[in-house]
Amino acid sequence: MSGRCIMMCAGDFHPMEIDAQKDDFVIAVDGGLKFLMEAGIEPDLLLGDFDSLEGEFTETIEMYRARGEEHFLQLPVVKNDTDTMAAARIGIRKGYREFLIYGGTGGRPDHFMANIQTMNWIQRNGGQAFMLDREARMTVIGPGIFRIPDGFDGTVSMFALDRRLEGVTIRGMKYCLENATVTNDYPVGISNETLPRGEDPGAAGKEPEEAFYSIGEGTALLIMTEKLINRHH
Fold first, then answer.
1. Pairing state of beta strands 25-29 and 45-48?
2. Do 98 and 56 share a structural domain?
3. How many Cα atoms within 13 Å fall on the side-chain side of residue 88?
4. 212 and 191 part of one domain
5. 8-state DSSP, 231
6. pTM of this prediction?
7. Quick one: 107 and 26 in the same domain?
8. CA 64 from centre of chain
9. Do residues 188 and 133 make contact, with C-beta atoms less than 8 angstroms apart?
10. Most buried of 21, 49, 91, 100, CB within 10 angstroms?
11. Is 189 found in the same domain as 83?
12. CA torsion angle 138 202 179 120 (round to 10)
């Protein structure tokens, strides 16, 4: 499956570029419709119980309803899945394996946590989701290697989602680990730092090695925060 599944959610959304390309499948998750409309992006699917859309969008909702079930899905207000989780299931069912989630971090802390769990579900079903806002990008990583993108300059924080992470190795960062155990009751993985070009803590004057996180067993939340808004606590 070419392209990605892009989910525009209804959480507080600070204006930023939405990386929607021709082959992507764009889902407006309930009130996320208004952010897509403001950005001039027409979703392929409008989904939700529409409890966060006001009356001014009634005409648009009815327009999508008339297009049929391929483009419109109304969910009950009382349900087990969140709207975002329902969107993720559709994306996986359609064969998408890369997901971008916008509008998923701001507003209600409980919705934010639910979206982290949705990313965890996507990862366990063969996909990789990135939740993006103007300050950071987040993803869930499981057994295997996650390479920090080339050119990223900032902090990387890792938090265990399972009780224990085994075989944790971190390379190419300011603070490294080798085959370590990390638990979900101690935030030892917070605020690691990428290295400037030409700086290597183990060999002065050499280029730093490729930055990556490797996990042997367990899943973790990885948060990459741009350097300009980095804060130490």
1. parallel
2. yes
3. 30
4. yes
5. -
6. 0.88
7. yes
8. 26
9. no
10. 91
11. no
12. 0
Q: Are residues 9 and 88 in the same domain?
A: yes
SS3 sequence of 117-171: HHHHHHHHCCCEEEEECCCEEEEEECCEEEECCCCCCEEEEEEECCCEEEEEEEE
Parent domain of 12: 5-134
Tokens of 22: 């021709």
What are the distances in angstroms from CA 111 to CA 54, 105, 179, 184, 201? 19, 8, 34, 20, 39
Tokens 């999508």, located at residue: 64
Mean pLDDT by 10 residues, the chain (233 residues): 89 83 94 91 93 75 91 91 96 97 89 95 96 92 94 94 97 95 96 75 60 97 80 47
Hey, CA dihedral for 164, 119, 38, 4, is it positive or negative?
A: positive
Q: Are the C-beta atoms of residues 192 and 173 closer than 8 Å to each other?
A: yes
Tokens representing 53 are: 């859309």
Residues 154, 56 share a domain = no
Angle, helix 83-93 to helix 109-124, in steps of 10 degrees: 20
